[in-house]
Amino acid sequence: MNYQFDFHQVSLGLPKLLEGLGTTLQLTAAANVIGITLGFGLALLVMSRHVLVRTPAMLFVEFFRCTPALIQIVWFFYCVPILFDVFIDPLQMGVIALGMNLTAFNAEAYRATIQAVPREQLDAGVALGLTPLQRQLYIVLPNAFRAAVPVLLTNGIVIFQQSALVAIVAIEDLMYVGKSLATESYRPIETFTIIALLYFAVSYPIAQLVSYLERRREAANP
Amino acid sequence: MKYDFGIIYGYTDALLRGLTTTAQLTLACIVLGSALGFGLALARTSRNPLVRGASGFYVEFFRGTPVLIQLFWIFFCLPLVLGQEISNLASSIIALSLYMGAITSETFRSSLKVVGREQMDACVALGLPRMRQILHVVMPQTLLRSVPTLLSNCVSLFKESALVSAVGMTDLMFVGQNISNSTVRPVEVLTATALIYFVIAFPLTRAVTRIESRILTKLAV
After folding, report:
1. Which end of chain B is less congested by CB atoms within 10 angstroms, N or C?
2. Measured between CA atoms, how close is A124 to chain B, in angstroms?
3. Which residues of B touch A182 (CB under 8 A)?
4. Which of B163, B60, B178, B113 is closest to A71 using CA atoms?
5. CB distance from A66 to chain B under 8 Å?
6. Whole-angstrom Cα distance, residue A197 to residue A187?
7. How high is the ipTM of this complex?
8. How many beta-carbon pairs below 8 A join chains A and B?
9. Tens of pLDDT, residue by residue, chain B (221 residues)
10. Option in A68, A83, A179 nearest B72 (CB)
11. B125 in reach of chain A (CB within 8 A)
């Protein structure tokens, strides 16, 4: 291999890359807000006693979990404007698509932890005369949320990585900016390596945090 | 706007051909990736810190970056590094196998832990060489226990394989998008394409749950 590395062109593009990273982080943060809140509600719907409530919720979850994220994003971009006759700003559309995907995955994470909330605590809630809504909000949610944190964080990292897909529908995130920089500078190796390292630099610390939390939990309940 | 899902029938052949490409690609990468993953899992338990560190970094890196950038790196940069052309099929297989190797190595690693210390001691007592320990003692138990997780890894790979459309592979995703662009009927065509992915991936995820409960009860773990 006799390739001459030249980071000059790429370093000129660095401010743009960081701007792209900013967009990626915004997308990720917004999708996580949607996913963490709606995911809990969806998990409750999936566990509902009524078939009419449960079935559509389960279909929603399974559909997002069993199709490629790429087709979900492309589908949102092409089909939502036609189906509902609305025009949504691309960035917002990206947030909606990623947020819906994350909602489905987080609902599964919550479901496992909601089932693990001890039965006695709910009985105690009934005995204290709490309404069903109060029981969900003050007993189930805090318990389930705490237990779900590692999985929620892992799903958050996954959606951070999946957010690179929005580059395909021309949102100017890190991936998109990087790809155009690689084409403009004729320096694909340097550019793509730097983008990969940027993604890695964000997700690695969070992955380490997750394994730290898991180790702590294992130590707490052996 | 009227929707006409009938137009999809005209494109059944093309979609099926795309699906075949997707399936072949996925199968090839499952085989290559799982083999790589098993090797990596063993490497991560190695006594040599260099081997352990390198394999650990490999896994963290491939799990910590988007698959799309891995694919682009292989597609755009590897030819420059090697100094020769690589077809888009080859780069897709390389990229997805490397990714699959990283995710399956985590699966194998957690099931490797199940093979207890005393079994390794028994191997030493029996004087089994390292290779036979792996082939006859470690591998059968590990593989059996990792089946459910391995299957869900396969489903993830099947979904991630849609990315290869970005480097011009004519897989299901690529064909679907092409038809949707040329017929200007994204709602029908894209929905149908998504449904094709769904009808394959969904039964597989159900199978994971069933196999999981069956294997777990059989092994009583």
Report:
1. N
2. 32
3. 76
4. B163
5. yes
6. 16
7. 0.86
8. 118
9. 677 788 888 888 899 999 999 999 999 999 999 999 999 998 998 889 999 999 999 999 999 999 999 999 999 888 888 888 888 899 999 999 999 999 999 999 888 887 878 888 888 899 888 888 888 888 888 888 888 889 989 999 999 999 999 998 899 999 999 999 888 888 889 999 999 999 999 999 888 888 888 877 776 54
10. A179
11. no
